[in-house]
Amino acid sequence: MQSLWTTFPPQLVLAGSTLYVSQGSIYGLDTRTGKVRRQYAVSGSAALAFARGTLYLNVNRHPDSSVQAVRAHDSWALWSYQVAGPLAHAPTLARDGVYVSTTEGVLYALQARNGRLLWQQAVGGTSAAQWPTVAALIGRVLCVGAKSGPDSILSAYQPADGALLWSSHLSGTWFSLPIGAAGRVYISDNNGEVSAFRLRDGQLLWQTAVAAEVQSTAYLSMRPSSIVLLPASSPEP
């Protein structure tokens, strides 16, 4: 019998000696024993990130979605911000900002301390952009890959005010989390293409086909050779 749906594994976030698991509720597990230290109920599906004692949650619940901040040690709700449309992936965190994107192609920047809206921007400068990847902060640039009409784009923003710095075309429709180092940003797509762009202006530096289908995220080696590691697989026969 063919399965009609797939159950995805829970998201894991490690914070010191506590492992946070998002599966219906948010569970904080003791990394040594596996026992549940704390639990936070969530009304909807949640993707999470952790920084400086706070859990930041992207919570999707039809018909609305919200970004929430929860104090980790006692599950105290610090703030909540409602957005229009489903949220994509987990929040991206910087020192003073929380960055989230919706599947409808809107990028939001919120103040980490109180959830106040700092700015919002259509991904790629167009309302046609959809299904963006989670934004990645690379150096002082916020990078987002998204589908925009018949094309796909990698866009870069100024984190402070959301100003669009540049946009470059991509070949795929689904993307890895952008990663970067040494003035470059790397991204892979579902067509098996790995692309490298210059971070300051978005110029394409190279593009390499590694597989017929990419099913995971690219990783950057910290060795001097700066090798980009890409889990990939070909389609099943």
TrEMBL record:
Residue ranges of domain Pyrrolo-quinoline quinone repeat in the record: 13-127, 154-225
Pfam families in the record: PQQ_2 (PF13360)
SUPFAM superfamilies with a match to the protein in the record: Quinoprotein alcohol dehydrogenase-like (SSF50998)
Superkingdom, taxonomy of origin: Bacteria
Record protein name field: Pyrrolo-quinoline quinone repeat domain-containing protein
